[in-house]
Amino acid sequence: MIKQIKKSFTVALAACLLGACGQAPQIQSNQESTTKEPTKVKIAVVGSPSHDIWNFVAEKAKKENIDLEVIEMNDYVQPNVALSEGSIDLNAYQHRAYLKQWNTEHKDDLKEIGLTIITPLYFFSNKVKSLSDLPEGAKVAIPKEVAIQGRALVALQTAGVIKLKDGGSTKSSLTDIESNPKNIEFLEVESAQAVRTLDDVHAATIGGSFATDAGLSIKDNIFTDADYLDTIPADRYNIIAAKEKNADNPVYKKIVELFQSDDVVEKMNEVAPGQYYPVWKTNK
Known about the structure:
Layout: H1 2-33, E1 39-46, H2 48-62, E2 66-73, H3 78-85, E3 90-95, H4 96-106, E4 110-115, E5 117-118, E6 121-124, E7 139-143, H5 146-158, E8 163-164, E9 177-179, E10 185-189, E11 203-207, H6 208-213, E12 223-224, E13 238-243, H7 250-259, H8 262-271, E14 277-278
Parallel strand pairs: 1-2, 1-3, 7-10, 7-11
Antiparallel strand pairs: 3-13, 4-13, 5-14, 6-11, 6-12, 8-9
Helix pairs in contact: 2-7, 2-8
């Protein structure tokens, strides 16, 4: 009887040990299955300062299991083309008015999913030290893009160079110039090409990212509307955009959240002092 009990105990113990050994790989397998691959997201930006800032966001995104690839483009057209065609998932470079214009002209459905910044507008010159020094018949390069041109004209009005109909607005165009005392000749130039005109004009409107990429120092500008940012309407606020069908994607919303933070503001001031002003806390 005792021998029989010992035999039964030995069999049971062996079965238990074999069972435990058989379960170990199963536990390991379950652990492996709960480790998800990072969600890959591509975002397009314009200018190296923006690239640096978004690389900082990308590092933060890793902790959220998001693999955010930042792609730098060199004009204001390709980021929307790429987003529309689906080769990227998001872009962050344009303001609301530009996006609205794009959707209208291209019958597109790109949509704002979060606010980012306001970027000051700058005038640079190799010939004069201020806009008030422009001579009779001077040539001034302004943005060809309709959504940006109005802001440049308002800046010129603020500087006393011209006067616009009805006080002017960011929707003003060259046809709205009511008074041009110095008979300034305005040349419409694509923003990405404005730096190349500096030797041929008396002054040129140049965005901060294009200026720094060309080796210009922001402090050398002859005029900026940075001192008048409170007068800039909300449709000039820069945004993060996605395709409309993806606007509620929770991963994209998390990326917006990661950008809209104090440490990103600190990074902006480190990378490009005075060039970026956060607007996501505004009520506009």
